[in-house]
Every structure is written in structure tokens, then in C-alpha cells.
Amino acid sequence: MHALVYHGAGRHSWDEVPDPSLQDDTDVIVGIDAVTICGTDLHVLRGDLPEVAPGRVLGHEAVGTVEEVGPAVRQVRPGDRVLVSCISACGSCRACRRARYGQCSGGGGWRLGHTLDGVQAEYARVPFADWSTYRLPRSVDDESAVLLADVLPTAYEVGVLNGHVGPGDVVVVVGAGPIGLATVVTARLFSPGRIVVVDPAAPRRDAAAALGADVVVGDEPDSVQELVASLTDGEGADVVVEAVGAPESFELCTRLVRAGGRVANVGVHGAPASLHLESLWGSDLTITTGLVDTGTIPTLLRLVADGRLDPTSLVTHRFGLTEIGRAYDVFARPAETGAVKVVLSR
């Protein structure tokens, strides 16, 4: 088969590699029908995650058809159309029993495209299939489903739910990349009073406005702070979501939130960020971080099936699977290409 293989920082190629095979009784082999590219994949390619070894097949978000199942698999059968979650879960460890699948200590967590070969390939081995795949109804198409593997649950769980977004809240999202825009889409489920999106790129601000942001603004700190103050009688936002993964954006978030408010960090940080406790210590803030658990996939899947949520509003570019090199190039240059999410189909 062919797959996208990581060859060290800045290098990848669509290579012929051996077909995957069952290794554990709980594995399945999935024929890949659609994948997408995540910002974390770009971090891997930049060399930000040294634990990803050269030779690794990338990708952790896919929709496909089950080809083969291990003898212990109970929930799916060959021929089933499934969503492959970005998180693998053993289902029996202490973390999994608390639905903290991202913290699985039984061999799961973020494995695909990280410490195991991933899904940007013609076929993939998926471990712990009963807990890590979801059968799809016919009413949910591949393009909608693949965005439920990571970007929608990440924004929903780590941004919206961790931030306790509620009716009437003023919510500021710093960063209008895929995660930031998915935060806008899922925050609207809770009827916030205002959603403000901060991003330096005009195309992404336009995308945020089209997806339901009430106010969009560039990232000049002084002007952003003045705007948020004007919308909140000088108090600051109820919830601020960091969706960039940069020190300056995290520090901006802590300046935009009101006393007693919440900062939900979703961005993947490759460098230290300062926490200015000398000015924040008395502010009664709640700051959360987290890796997605994907426990909300069934809820999001029902919302999509019922027509209450449309993930395809995030898709800007479509490619064939063999065009994955071009797709990465487009996805990595959003300021020039306007890319938000790209979907590749077989």
C-alpha cells in the first residue's frame, strides 16, 4: 500500500510501505476512505515532537471501512463504515473508567501518527477498536464524519466545556485556525452573548464571521484589550480560549479575561509561556489545559445526524488521497491559501 511517511523534520513523502496486519486481539484493519490534516501534524513535520520517529506513517483522523477484525473485537465487523478516533482507549484502565481516554495508561492515548503508524494511508491498523472506532449512520457523510475524529471534539471538550461556556457569556477565541473556528461553531450550541475572534489574518477573520463570530479583530494587544473592555463594561471576557499555542497568545488571553473568569488553553505549545502570577494571583481565575478525550464523539455525531451541527462548514479544500503532498502545502500556508480544513478522499 501507499502512505504518507515522516522522514525527519521538514521531510515527508507518499511511499510504498507494507500493508498493516493485526497485532493484538483488539485490533482492526481499516481501509481508509477519507482523512484530514491536523495542525499537530504540522508540529510533527517541524520536528516539535521528537518522540515521532522517522519512518512513522502520519495522521490520526479518518473514516474508513473495516476490512479485518481481531478475535476480541465485539462492536464492529468487516464491512462496517467507521470513524477512527484520534485517541485510542483501552477501556479498562483507571483513566478510561473516568472517560479520560486521552490519559489512557493501558496503551492508548494519542498513538496513531505519533507512536504508532497512522491513518494517512490506504489502510491502517487501529488498536482497541471497540473503544476507538464508531460505526457511522448512512445519514452522515465521510466529510462530516472525519471532522469528528479530532477538531470538533477538541474544540468542544478542551475549549467550550473546559471553559464552561454558558448562555449570555462573552467568549473570546484567540486564533482562528481550525481549532479556533471549531470553537466558534461548538460554542454557539450554548447561546453565548458575544463571540469575539482574534486573528492577524483577514481570510481567517472572514471565516470566523461567516461561522457565527459576532466581532472579529486583528491581534494587536492594545486594540484587542480596548475592544473587549468596551463590550464588557471594562470587566473582561467571561471565557477566553487560547487556540494558537504561542506564548504571546496565552499571555494575551490572561489579560482579556475578567476576574473570576476562565481561560481554556487548547493550543499546542512548542515553547514556554509565562504565567504572570505577580498580576494574576488575586484574580480568582480558572486556567485549564488538556488533551482531547473524544468522549463527546457520540453526542457530536447525533447532532450532525440530526442536522443540528454542520462540520463541513469548516472545509475549504478537497483533494484525492494521492494528492496529500499538495494538500499539506495548501494547509501549511493558510494566510495565502485561505485553508481551514482540507479533506482527502480515496
Automatic annotation (TrEMBL):
Gene Ontology MF term list: oxidoreductase activity; zinc ion binding
SMART domains per the UniProt record, alphabetical: PKS_ER
Protein family per UniProt: Belongs to the zinc-containing alcohol dehydrogenase family.
SUPFAM superfamilies: GroES-like, NAD(P)-binding Rossmann-fold domains
PROSITE patterns reported in the protein's UniProt record: ADH_ZINC
Keywords annotated in UniProt: Metal-binding, Oxidoreductase, Zinc
Name the record gives this protein: Alcohol dehydrogenase
InterPro entries named among the record's database cross-references: ADH-like_C, ADH-like_N, ADH_Zn_CS, ER, GroES-like_sf, NAD(P)-bd_dom_sf
